[in-house]
Write a structure and sequence with these properties.
The chain is an alpha+beta fold. The chain has a domain at 18-163 and 202-207: endopeptidase fold (from Nostoc punctiforme) (Alpha-Beta Complex). It has six helices and ten strands; from the N terminus they run E-E-H-E-E-E-E-H-H-H-H-E-E-E-E-H. Strands 1-6-2-3-4-5-10 form a seven-stranded antiparallel sheet. Strands 7-8-9 form a three-stranded mixed sheet, with no helix packed on it. Strand 7 (166-170) and strand 8 (173-177) form a beta hairpin. The protein is globular, with a radius of gyration of 17 Å. It starts with a strand and ends with a helix. It comes from Gossypium raimondii (Peruvian cotton). One of its GO terms (biological process) is protein deubiquitination. Belongs to the DeSI family.
C-alpha cells in the first residue's frame, strides 16, 4: 500500500514526482554526546519527503499523533544528523494520501517508548516506501527493551507533542488548537495537514484519513 518506486536514475530529465527520502535524527538527551560514539543513544527521528518532515509523538487521545514540521527543526529536540535514503518516485499528493492513511495507525495515546515510538514510525514509512529499514542504531534502545526503560528519566518516557489536535473550519481555512477529550470530533472535514491557530505552536498535525477511505486504498 502506497509504496513508492525507488529511483537510482542519473539522467537529467525533469520529474516532479521524484523526491529525496531523508531520515533526520535528533538527540533526546545530552548524554548522547558521549554514548553516540559507542553506537548507543536516545534519539527522535523524522522522515523528510517533499520538503517537509513527518514524525510521531504522544498525547492522551485516540486521534493522530503524526505531525509535520520544517526539516531539521522539530521542536523540543536537538538536531544531530541526516541520513539520505535515496530518492522515490511518488507525487506530493500521493504521499499526502499515504501519510494520512498511515496516521490512522499512529494515534497519540498508542505511543510507547519500547514498542511503538517515533523511530518505529520512521522505520514503517521507509519500509513501506522502499522495502528497507532505517539504521539499527537509531532505535537500539527499544530493541534492548524494558530493562532500560526503567532507568530513563520520566521526561523521556514519551516524545510528547506540544498541543493536542482539534480541527476547526474558519473562513475556509483549517486551524489548530488544544481541546479536551469530550470536545474532539474526528468527523471534521478535509485538509488534514493543519496550521496552528496559536502562533507559538510550531507543528502541524496530520489528520488521519477516515477508515472507509483507508479501506479503498489499493
Amino acid at each position: 500500500m502506497g509504496k513508492g518506486k525507488v529511483s537510482n536514475s542519473s539522467h537529467n530529465e525533469s520529474n516532479d514526482n521524484e523526491t529525496k527520502l531523508v531520515l533526520n535524527i535528533y538527540d533526546l538527551t545530552p548524554m548522547n554526546n558521549y554514548s553516540y560514539w559507542i553506537g548507543f543513544g536516545i534519539f527522535h527521528s523524522g522522515i523528510e519527503v517533499h520538503g517537509k518532515e513527518y514524525g510521531f509523538g504522544a498525547h492522551d487521545f485516540s486521534i493522530s499523533g503524526v505531525f509535520e514540521v520544517e526539516p531539521k527543526c522539530c521542536p523540543g529536540f536537538s538536531y544531530r544528523c541526516s541520513i539520505s535514503l535515496g530518492r522515490i518516485n511518488m507525487s506530493s499528493s500521493d504521499f499526502r494520501a499515504f501519510i494520512e492513511n498511515l496516521a490512522s495507525d499512529y494515534h497519540g495515546n498508542t505511543y510507547h517508548l519500547i514498542s511503538k515510538n517515533c523511530n518505529h514510525f520512521s522505520d514503517d514509512i521507509v519500509y513501506k516506501l522502499t522495502g528497507k529499514h532505517i539504521p539499527r542504531w537509531v532505535n537500539r534502545l527499544a530493541r534492548l527493551g524494558s530493562l532500560f526503560s526503567c532507568l530513563l528519566p520520566e521526561s523521556l518516557q514519551a516524545t510528547r507533542v506540544k498541543k493536542v489536535p482539534e480541527y476547526h473550519q474558519i473562513e475556509g481555512n483549517e486551524t489548530l488548537s488544544t481541546t479536551t477529550p469530550s470536545e474532539i470530533d474526528e468527523t471534521e472535514p478535509e485538509n488534514p495537514l493543519l496550521s496552528p491557530k496559536d502562533g507559538s505552536v510550531d507543528i502541524n498535525f496530520v489528520k488521519a484519513a477516515p477508515s472507509d477511505c483507508k479501506a479503498e486504498m489499493p
